[in-house]
Amino acid sequence: MQHMDDAFTLLRQAVDLLPQDAAAENGPTVGDVREDIVRQEWEMVLGVLIEIGDVHPVSVDFWELLAEAARQMMLDRSRRWCEWRGWEVRHGTVRATLSLVGAEEGRRRTAFAADGRLRPMWDIGNRTAGGERELNIARLWVEYAQELGPGETADVRLAPLSPEQWRHLKCGDVITMYEARPVSGTATVIEVLPPRA
Q1: What tens digit of pLDDT does each residue of 9-42 get?
Q2: Rounded to 5, what percent of the chain is helix, strand, coil?
Q3: In degrees, to the nearest 5, what angle opens at C-alpha 168 toward C-alphas 162 and 173?
C-alpha cells in the first residue's frame, strides 16, 4: 500500500516548490507562509499558497499537492479550484467576460454554481466537415463569485473538453454559450494562454 502524506506535509512540500521571492498579490510571501506553518495555521497556509499560485507560474505538481491537501481538509471548493488550475497548466487557459441573457429572453431562471460544474456548449466558430455549425463543450468557472444568474456579467474561465479545438481563439473574439435553445449568453475572450506543462 502506497504511503499518503497528510495535508500538512503536502502543504510544506508545496511551499518548497515556490521560489523564495514569490508573493501573493496582496503581499504575503513564502516566508510568511513558512511562519504560518510553524503556527499551524493550515487553512490560512492553503489560502495564501493558492493566492501565490494564482499570480506566479507554478507546476502541475504544486496544484496537485494543494488539491489533495484541500481534499483532506474537506475544503471542497478549494480542492476543485486547485484541480482546475492544474488542468490549466496542462491544457492552457481561456478567460472571457460572459454576459448571460435575462430570464425573460432565455431558458435559465435561476443562478448556477460558479465552481466549474456547469458544462455548457459554445459556438466558437468551428464547423463540421459538411459546413454546419459545431458546438464545443467547456466547463465554466466564474471568477470572484459563488454563482451567476440571468442578466448578470462576470469574468469566467473555460475548460474545454477538447482544448485543441479552441486554440484558434484570440483576445476580442466573441463566442456564444448554449445550455439549450435559445442562446444563454455571449462572451468576449480576454485572455488565451498556452499550456505550461
Answers
A1: 999 999 999 999 999 988 899 999 999 999 999 9
A2: 35, 25, 40
A3: 110
Q: How many CB atoms lie within 10 A of CB 192?
A: 18
Q: What is the pTM of this model?
A: 0.88
Q: Quote the cell numbers at residue 163.
A: 482544448
Helices vs strands, H then E, count in the chain? 5, 8
Q: Which three cell numbers stand for residue 96?
A: 472571457
Q: Which residue has the cell 465552481?
A: 115
CB 45 within 8 A of CB 73: no
- Give the β-pairing of 174-178 and 121-127: antiparallel
* φ, ψ at 74 (rounded to 5°): 60, 40
Q: Cα(52)–Cα(169) distance, rounded to whole angstroms?
A: 27
How far apart, in whole angstroms, are the C-alpha atoms of residue 140 and residue 195? 18
Query: Where on the phi/psi map is residue 125: left (φ > 0), alpha (ψ -120 to 50), or beta?
Result: left
